[in-house]
Amino acid sequence: MERLIKSGRGWRIGWNPTVAQFKGLVGTDDWSLELTEAEFNDFCRLLSQLVDAIATMQAELMNEEAIAIEVESDLLWLEAEGYSHAYSLHLILLTGRRGEGSWQADAVPQLWQAVQTIRVF
């Protein structure tokens, strides 16, 4: 697989297996973080867990009922906050160089769709 970058309004994600250390990229139009392979894999896995958890909870929640769900690994922390049909994401790197960023609710569905096509694990 060669270098791949996908982006849309308010989101960006990329993968470059040919570089030594920072193979992954996540961000928006205003910020970006390069991620190690392990961090990128954790980001994809944790986002999948959040999406699955929200889908499972959706039947139990009223449309106006807000949610906040956190997941984390040793490398990063990810939170979804909002409503089951529209939620923002917040990311914090927990090791090494540290960093954080967030995505608005309107960008999350396209980001999730891109993650499913670019995931490397």
Features:
alpha+beta, single chain, about 120 residues, 8 strands, Transcriptional Co-activator pc4, Chain A, four-stranded antiparallel beta sheet
| Relative strand content | 35-45%
* CATH hierarchy: architecture: Roll
Largest sheet: 4 strands, antiparallel
Helix count, per DSSP? Answer: 2
Radius of gyration: 14 Å
Point out poorly predicted stretches. none
Mean pLDDT: 92
* Strand order within the widest beta sheet: 1-2-3-4
CATH topology: Transcriptional Co-activator pc4, Chain A
H-E order: EEEEHEEEEH
Which CATH class is shown? Mainly Beta
Number of domains: 1
Overall morphology: globular
Number of strands: 8
- From the N-terminal CA to the C-terminal CA, the straight-line distance is 13 Å
Structure overview:
The protein has 121 residues and is of the alpha+beta class. The chain has a single domain (4-118), classed as Roll (Transcriptional Co-activator pc4, Chain A), CATH 2.30.31. It has two helices and eight strands; from the N terminus they run ββββαββββα. It has helices at 37-58, 108-118, and strands at 4-8, 11-15, 24-27, 32-35, 66-72, 76-83, 86-93, 99-103. The strands form two sheets. Strands 1-2-3-4 form a four-stranded antiparallel beta sheet. The longest helix has 22 residues, at 37-58. The relative contact order is 0.20.
